[in-house]
Structure formats: C-alpha cells, structure tokens
C-alpha cells in the first residue's frame, strides 16, 4: 500500500467542494488515514510551496493558499500517488480533462481546487509540513 497527501485549497473550500473532492477519493476506493482543516499563514505557505519560490506566480499562489482554510488529508491505496494525481487532473484547469476534479470544477490558475503530492518524497515532506508529524 502507498500513501499520498492531498489538499482541498481555499478556493475549493470557499466553493463548497470539500465533500465533492473527498467523495471522489472515497469512491475510487482510497482510504482516509488523516484529515484536518487548517489556515496557512505566509510562512507556512512559503515552506510548503518552496520549490516555486522565485517563479512569477509565487506571490499569487501564496495569496491564494492563505486566503482561507485548506483541508489536508493522507490517502492510502495501491499506487496512491499516481491514482490521486490522475483523479485531480492537469495543473492548469484549462487543460485538465473533463472527469477530473480540476477539469470539472476549475477555470483559471492559480485556483485549481486541489493539490496532491507528485512523488512519495513529496508526500513525506508535505504531510509533515501540514500535519506536523510523520506519516
Ligand atoms: P499545486 O498542484 O498546488 O502546485 C503548485 C501550484 O502553483 C499549482 O497547484 C497552482 O495553484 C499554482 N501554479 C502552477 N503553475 C502556475 C502558473 N503558471 N500560473 C499561476 N499559478 C500556477
């Protein structure tokens, strides 16, 4: 079994999509191992999105992620990292396929409803930052 980290971002939260996103993960058969709502401050946001520091969209991304609560979760299942990335769709919601979360609900970057780890290493790092503990 593999684990991954996924997070409904504040744009998804404010649109009332927390239940919809969790429903899709559960419908797929993934198990929720941990779930928590939290408010990012700028320091935490900059740590979480460290790899994007210096990019032109970084400040708009930090603005977005600090704009309201986010709901983070650890999901477990076979090949969970890849499966969750497929369920959420391409980063740019204008390119994400219909049927994916971003394809069905997103319209314009940086607001793309949901984030998910892109590797087991990212899962370890991101879940530790969000939950303050190791998974
Ligand atoms: P996420 O999967 O959370 O990882 C990094 C985030 O940066 C991404 O989703 C988007 O919210 C944002 N992002 C990535 N690329 C761009 C871009 N070209 N313009 C604006 N925002 C972006």
Summarize the structure in words:
This protein has 135 residues and is an alpha+beta fold. It has helices at residues 10-14, 18-28, 42-48, 58-65, 80-88, 101-105, 120-131, and strands at 2-8, 31-38, 70-77, 114-116. The protein has one domain (2-131): Nucleoside diphosphate kinase-like domain (Alpha-Beta Plaits), CATH 3.30.70. It contains seven helices and four strands. Strands 2-3-1-4 form a four-stranded antiparallel beta sheet, sandwiched between helices. Adenosine-3',5'-cyclic-monophosphate binds at residues 52, 57, 61, 91, 109-110, 112, 115. The site of adenosine-3',5'-cyclic-monophosphate has 8 residues, from loops.
Number of strands: 4
Order of helices and strands: EHHEHHEHHEH
Low-confidence stretches: none
Percent range for β-strand residues: 15-25%
If you consult CATH, what is the topology?
Alpha-Beta Plaits
Blueprint (SSEs and pairs):
Blueprint (H helix, E strand, L loop, with lengths): L1 E7 L1 H5 L3 H11 L2 E8 L3 H7 L9 H8 L4 E8 L2 H9 L12 H5 L8 E3 L3 H12 L4
Antiparallel strand pairs: 1-3, 1-4, 2-3
The structure holds adenosine-3',5'-cyclic-monophosphate (CMP).
Name the descriptors.
about 140 residues; alpha+beta; Alpha-Beta Plaits; 4-stranded antiparallel sheet
């Amino acid at each position: 079994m593999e684990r991954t980290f996924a997070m409904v971002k504040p744009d998804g939260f404010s649109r009332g999509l927390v239940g919809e996103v969790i429903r899709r993960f559960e419908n797929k058969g993934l198990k929720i191992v941990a779930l928590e709502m939290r408010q990012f401050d700028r320091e935490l946001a900059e740590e979480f999105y460290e790899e994007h520091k210096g990019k032109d969209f970084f400040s708009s991304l930090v603005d977005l992620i600090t704009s309201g609560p986010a709901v983070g979760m650890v999901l477990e299942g076979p090949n969970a990292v890849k499966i969750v990335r497929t369920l959420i769709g391409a980063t740019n919601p204008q390119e994400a396929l219909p049927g994916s979360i971003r394809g069905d609900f997103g319209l314009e970057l940086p607001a793309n409803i949901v984030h998910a780890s892109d590797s087991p290493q990212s899962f370890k790092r991101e879940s530790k930052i969000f939950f303050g503990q190791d998974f």
